[in-house]
Design brief:
Length: about 190
């Protein structure tokens, strides 16, 4: 992989039903591509993981949706207001330039950056047989995508919340979060 010779093939787009209705688009990589993505993930995750917000739970080692829900349930009962935030179409709309900028803040490893850029721009075989070229997003279903999504949200949401609303607590699981706080003066 360090030679830069691996070229990721197109991912296969499939639509799976959502429990709430509608479908969720997944980008399914080949087995070889999943292995290559795991190599990069194993290189990058130990660098990124200590940087992430304590209340970020999605796709993280030793954290789960159940952990986030349990903590939110405990904390929310004592609050005056609670928001339920879900970023619609998040994985398909991540800005590549901002994501690569975030990755570069944490590694200068040329082959890691090269492959992440290639995965972000890899074409997608659509269910109707057409091929789609991507200029944004990271396919939900890839091995590296959850780590990249967490990195993007670390800067776009977690750090923004910390800077702009330091008294507002939240739990985040991928693109779903539950910010809340006491009303002023309580």
């Amino acid at each position: 992989m360090a030679s830069g010779s691996y070229m990721p093939p197109a991912v296969q787009r499939v639509e799976i039903p959502k429990a709430t209705g509608g479908t969720r688009p997944l980008g399914i990589p080949t087995v070889a591509d999943r292995i290559a993505q795991m190599v990069v993930k194993n290189r990058l995750e130990p660098i990124l993981e200590p940087q992430f917000h304590d209340d970020s739970y999605g796709y993280r080692p030793h954290k789960s949706a159940h952990d986030a829900l349990k903590l939110a349930r405990q904390r929310c009962w004592r609050m005056d207001w609670v928001l339920d935030v879900d970023i619609k179409g998040f994985f398909d709309n991540i800005d590549h330039e901002l994501l690569i900028k975030a990755v570069r803040k944490h590694t200068d490893c040329k082959w890691v950056l090269l492959y992440i850029e290639r995965w972000l721009t890899a074409s997608v075989h659509m269910p109707d047989g057409t091929v789609q070229i991507r200029d944004k997003g990271t396919p939900q279903g890839g091995v590296i995508s959850p780590l990249l999504a967490n990195l993007f949200l670390h800067y776009a949401f977690d750090m923004w919340m910390k800077r702009e609303f330091p008294v507002v607590r939240f739990e985040r699981y991928a693109d779903d979060s539950v910010p809340r706080r006491h009303a002023p003066g309580t």
